[in-house]
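Review box. Two proteins, two foldings.
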Amino acid sequence: MSIADTTTATGARPTWLALDKLGVLIALIAAAGAALPFALFRANRIVLGQTQSLAEALPGQLGLLLAAVLLTGFVVALLRFSALAKLLVGFFVLAVLFVLMGQSAAYLTPAGNSFARVSPGAGFWLLVFAFALLVTDALTRLRFSPFIRIALLLVVAAAMALLLWSGGWDQLSMLKEYANRAPAFWAEARTHLVLAFGSVAIATLVGLPLGILCYKVKPLRAGVLNVLNIVQTIPSIALFGLLIAPLAWIAANVPGASAIGISGIGTAPALVALFAYSLLPIVSNTVVGLDNVSPAAIDAAKGMGMTGRQRLVDIELPLGFPVILTGIRIVLVQNIGLTTIAALIGGGGFGVFVFQGIGQTAMDLVLLGAVPTVALAFAAAVVLDALVELTSRGGQQA
């Protein structure tokens, strides 16, 4: 249907000219972002910087281009355009923002100056947030299939990889911090992945049988869940600290413990703490998922002569699996973030750069640890949400 077709015979205005309620909020955020500094210039990595507005951060033609793109995004967000139009415009505005941020760094950095630093300003981050919100809202309305959502994630990841590979962001301070620490960055990335995914894997191996046991033996359920609730209430840094003494004692007194990596500080207490935090969501979601299996399905299985073990494996676990997988999703996203704190006890991970940056008042070093953590958590959430939806559909069809 064309725009003209949306105008009724009585002369009513087209529906796309009406205001979008969420779009009003997005437009206000975008307007605030456009008014705030787009970039921050510093003579070196630790001194206070000079804020640069949109007009100052880019050469004339690029500044006008960005202003026109932002105005288009503002209008599309504000009015009731189709969800697909909002999605495409949102992605386009984000792409232009990221590309021109790199151009801004190249423009503001004096030629031959290796000490100057250019960082994204508050306005840039607010604009990214506004149009990311526009994209998220459009994706929610479009209700794409899980495979399309994963494909979009891969396209976005490929676009970011292309931007970084092309050198478009090389003049940004965060990439200069990376260039000075590339080997350490990838070593800490591997540690972060091992801690986050390893703790979830171990917790799943322990929590799934424990949840099944709590489901089968109801008197045991309250006690186990209460204990796990208590563990969950302990602040993360406190739990990391509490584990130092007992693990140090084990390393000193148990033969072979130190040889396999157990120590008071390092990855061992971090892995144990993350494992402890992971148990409650997995155990509780296993119990809830099995409890929610339709009694009619269980009665039908009994009528077919299935044993208790067969009912559990063939009926209850497959039907309860989407809820169980939701618990694993919660834990994985949680642990990707919590792993940053492990750096405080020598556990490694992206938190090393976060706390080094705080100690040196170098915020771009903080971003070098924080941005990959956020991106990894977001990607894990998208992929596992898609898997939850796929397993839910499979269970419904079964």
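Next protein.
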Amino acid sequence: MLNLWTQRKRAHFLEMLKYLRYVLNDHFVIALMFLVGGLGFGYSNFLKTFHAGTWWAGPVAIFYLTIILQFCSLATLLKRADPVFLLPREHDMHGYLKKSRIHSWTFSSVVEVVGVVILSPFMAIAFQLSVIQIGSFIITLIILTFGSLSLELNQLYQNRVFGWQQSLLTNWIFPLIWFTGGIYLSFWFALVGAIIQSFLEIRREQQQWQTRSLAWKLAVNLEDQRMLKIYRFFNLFTDVPNVHGTVHRRKYLDRILGMIDRRSQNPYVYLFSRALMRSTVYSGLYFRLTILGVVLLMFISNIYLAIFLQLLFVYLIGFQLLPLFANYNENVFTHLYPISAVTKAAGFNQLVMILLEFTVSLLAIVGGLSNMSILQAVITWFTGSIEVWGLLKFYFPIRIKKMNS
């Protein structure tokens, strides 16, 4: 079973590398450098004006440390066929799952170390902490992570997903208590609390797996959900065959859909709008990227960085909406319409223009309000509108032509 884990981990690593080549392309790396540089510059300027004794420093640090803890997740790398082929080796699966816990713990620990290092200047100024005291919070996070992963492993032998009450208690309430005591009382309080909590979770996991059978279906479903989150991130940059959207009724959007005349000369405006509203893939990507752009622009004071981020998010949204053009290609009835491909493209461009212009206007308003500058709002709206025009006039026709070829 240990050889199986090694093979699965290697295959998973190669698959992630394949998609990372599309994520870390030249354009995105340059954009990421500007983003990190801009945020780092703003963080540095903030620390110069920050001083100890600020009342909100404690809640921010406690909440930040608790949020970092939520990034840990048990990666079992199980497949749909495993319950059939590995069932005779079920008792040996615990060694496989322990390896997966160590792998997940190592990866999560790296993320947590980086997160605490970023926060360390803030904590050093706000609470006058030494390097050893800040390091104790890193150790606390690492210990809590191992306990959280043991909790996830334990539920596979309970044959049920733990209720939200237990998850809230273990992953949120208890860590908030430990970090609050660590900030305001002593770092030993957080360290001892984390050791006790994790020890109890590990102890319970060791008792469960010897007396209970593995919940294969639950384990496979949880792994599928975890991988789907990763694939959805990669789907922001390239097409991922593993991502399959679901369709929802969404009756509350009927009023918006009713504003579109389905008897117009271009019925594709209605069809594409309906697909966008009912599909979780397209609507989810659009709203997530728009909200992320709004949140970032709320904290960006540099006008040039704000314009760059707006242009980047508008491009990403437009790029992710392109597969919507082929949404009805496999529907035989759409090929019976006496409508040309030019009309179809015009209907698609009309919908995308409305969506992108709404995003541009929203980002411009947020950027202007956050910096109290009407000039910035006008400039960002103008540059964003030019980008939308360029995408619809030059970029989209080339991409649509490739999709039809």
